[in-house]
Amino acid sequence: MVLIQYLLRYSILVPAYGKENVLGDLYFALLVLSMILIAAGGYVINDYFDIQTDTANKNVIVGRSIKRRVALILHVILSLSGVIIGFFVAYKLDYIVLGAIMSVASYILWEYSLRLKRKLFVGNFIVAILTLLFVFSLSSFEILPKLHLQESKSPLVVLCIYAAFAFISSLMNEIIKDLRTVEGDQRFKIRTLPSVWGIPKTKEFVKWLSILTAFMVISISIYIFKSELVALAYALTLLIGPLFLLNIWIYKAKENMDYERISKLIKFIIFAGIISLFFFIE
After folding, report:
1. Run of H or E residues at 127
2. Measured between alpha carbons, how far is 109 from 115 in angstroms, rounded to an integer?
3. Is the Cβ–Cβ distance between 203 and 226 less than 8 Å?
4. d(C-alpha 71, C-alpha 13), whole Å
């Protein structure tokens, strides 16, 4: 989370506008910290509400490693701290919408954990949207006010590409999680894609998402890096290749350990996608 924000800052924003014309280091670091605290608070409260299904799926943290009361207090501290820091920076920058966004994100994470994740596909979509917003939000505050400048065209295109990649990758990751926990979800009547559509149809959906991502990576690589062999080789071996490998693994997956392996592969693809921002650093 921290890595992608700083890579976006130093690969597209600073080269485009100059360091003196972007958000100061302190305020930028505080905003990143605010996002991390809110995300961590969301993670804790999600485990708090998921203790029954996590127990069924043998993936218990809250209730065993952390007491439920402690988890609830920890959620409040993390989320409230994130929102306060967000409003502090918003006040200093005279841009109160920043604080409002942090508050809304924290509330959505609460609602997601409490009830939205139990609605068919809604939970997956919300997590993917929040991931997209996390990637897009900070950089967009630098780019959108400067859209009238010629220098803004390239940063905006790159930002949208990585936000779309983050959305699809996060969506795949969430669906794979549902495939791993389908037994517990069915027992507690949680409506996920695997428990409603069935495993074969859900696998097919993930397959087409991976194909869409691979096509996007191929198109962008050829368009932007058509003469840079190192960048093209990177995309082929560390993004496109693993995406097609994911297709094979998802087709063959049967056991829980198979889905764990696929989940790790998706995380590797996401990490490789983030690291590819280095190719934009001048």
Report:
1. helix 122-143
2. 10
3. no
4. 38
Residue range 149-177: average pLDDT? 91
State how far the Cα of 167 lies from the Cα of 45, in Å rounded to an integer. Answer: 22
| Token digits of residue 248 | 């094979």
Name the residue among 134, 111, 133 with its Cα closest to residue 122. 111
- DSSP of 29-84: HHHHHHHHHHHHHHHHHHHHHTHHHHHHTT---BTTTB-HHHHHHHHHHHHHHHHH
Q: Count the neighbouring beta carbons within 10 Å of the beta carbon of residue 137.
A: 18
- Binning pLDDT at 50, 70 and 90, where does residue 166 land? very high
**Nearest-CA neighbor of 234 among 199, 267, 273, 261?**
273
pLDDT at residue 55, rounded to an integer: 47
Residue 30 · residue 88 · CB < 8 Å: yes
To the question of pTM greater than 0.90 for the whole model, the response is: no
Helix, strand or coil, per DSSP, at residue 137: helix
CA–CA–CA angle 212, 159, 280 (5° rounding): 100
Dihedral sign, CA of 154, 156, 161, 165? positive
CA-based max dimension of the chain: 57
Beta pairing partners, 62: 66
Is the CB of residue 51 less than 8 Å from the CB of residue 69? no
- Distance from C-alpha of 203 to C-alpha of 48, rounded to nearest angstrom: 28
Q: At residue 64, what are phi and psi to the nearest 5 degrees?
A: -120, -65
Each residue of 194-231: pLDDT tens digit?
888 989 999 999 999 999 999 999 998 888 888 889 99
Average pLDDT over residues 168-187: 85
Contact between 158 and 276 (Cβ < 8 Å): no
